[in-house]
Amino acid sequence: MTKDEALDLALEALDNLLYWDNGKSDYDQAREAITAIKQARSTPVQEPVAECVWEHEDNDYMPGTWKSGCGVFWTFTDGSPVENDMKYCCGCGAKLKEKNT
Ligand SMILES: [Zn+2]
Question: Which of 8, 40, 45, 95 would you call most buried, defined as having the most Cβ atoms within 10 angstroms of its Cβ?
Answer without folding.
Answer: 40
